[in-house]
Amino acid sequence: MINRELIRTKIVQLTYAYYQNGSKNIDTAEKELLFSLSKAYDLYNYLLALIVSITRESRRHLEVAESRAKREGTPMPSRKFADNRFALQLEQNKMLQDFMETQKKTWSDEPEFVKKIYTSITECQVYKDYMESEEDCYQADREVWRKLYRTQIENNAALDALLEEQSLYWNDDKEVVDSFVLKTIKRFEEKNSTAQELLPEYDSEEDKEYARKLFRATILNANEYQHYMSESSRNWDFSRLAYMDIVIMQIAIAEMLTFPTIPISVTINEFVEISKLYSTPRSAGYINGMLDTIAHHLVNTGRMLKAVK
Predict the structure, then answer these.
(1) Residue 18's CB: how many other CB atoms inside 10 A?
(2) Residue 5 and residue 2: Cα distance in Å, rounded?
(3) What is the pLDDT averaged over residues 28-57?
(4) Which residues contact 220 (CB under 8 A, 6 or more apart)?
(5) Which residues contact 23 (CB under 8 A, 6 or more apart)?
(6) Can you tell me the distance from the alpha carbon of 184 to that of 163, in angstroms, rounded to the nearest whole number?
(7) What are phi and psi for residue 267, nearest 5 degrees?
(8) Rounded to the nearest 10 degrees, what angle do helices 111-123 and 157-166 cross at?
(9) Beta carbons within 10 angstroms of residue 214's beta carbon
(10) Separation of alpha carbons 293 and 232, rounded Å
């Protein structure tokens, strides 16, 4: 789940913090980086568990409605949402159960929020269309949760505020983690039952090593990389740059020089996108141009054996 896009973003955040906090202990900073990445995986599981908690809330409401129907002799309410096949499969998922058993924080600690989001779901058109549809299959059950997640959970300001209160690490993680949750919903298959695999914490052990190497190269070779920046633009006044711009370019240079298999264009594009989120409005264009100039300079001086496209 923790891919290179997320790793790059975390390294930008942690490198900036490294220079701001004054401690300059790279071992401590590296541990903080890996811990921060692990918290993103916690959020992934926590958001999957929210689907389970909403389903359990629907069952509680159903029990009350069924008791009332029996008492008043009215038609019994539909069990369609409470018995949603995808949600029940997720509830019984072995990987999710094992992970949540290790966590101190669960959605049972937020009953009022779960109740509110369940109520919001029952009032939305996606839910109403699902309940009125005669389609009754696993695929429909899975699809409604994909739609509900996108409309009720992905861009939910109250949820964002709640998550920020629970962990400072989750403040910038939710958008990318949402994409992983949606990917997981899409991958679920009924035949896999409780053994359905969730996304692993890292896409590969190589990605975990990539995080360590990129962060260490960025910090340990900072003076060298900033020298390359100066060489590439003689008229460049560092004091007039946003400090975040320098950090982003420093990390981009570290990636270009440390990882020979990553194309230069990929590195530049990824860090330009990050600059749009974390630096000034004019930074993206500036960083794009400077990194391209720096890359050509490194190749022309023999410091980097890559093709500049």
Answers:
(1) 24
(2) 8
(3) 96
(4) 26
(5) 29
(6) 20
(7) -60, -50
(8) 160
(9) 22
(10) 6
**Structure-derived torsion over alpha carbons of residues 105, 110, 116, 121, reported in degrees to the nearest 10:** 20
Distance CA 291, CA 250 (A): 10
The pair phi, psi for residue 202, each rounded to 5°, is -120, 145
- Model pTM? 0.91
One-letter-per-residue 3-state SS of the chain: CECHHHHHHHHHHHHHHHHHHCCCCHHHHHHHHHHHHHHHHHHHHHHHHHHHHHHHHHHHHHHHHHHHHHHHCCCCCCCCCCCCHHHHHHHCCHHHHHHHCCCCCCHHHCHHHHHHHHHHHHHCHHHHHHHHCCCCCHHHHHHHHHHHHHHHHCCCHHHHHHHHHHCHHHCCCHHHHHHHHHHHHHHCCHHHHHHCCCCCCECCHHHHHHHHHHHHHHHHCHHHHHHHHHHHCCCCCHHHCCHHHHHHHHHHHHHHHHCCCCCHHHHHHHHHHHHHHHCCCCHHHHHHHHHHHHHHHHHHCCCCCCCCC
Mean pLDDT of 60-66: 97
* pLDDT of 239 strictly over 70: no
Nearest alpha carbon to residue 127 among 147, 107, 155: 147
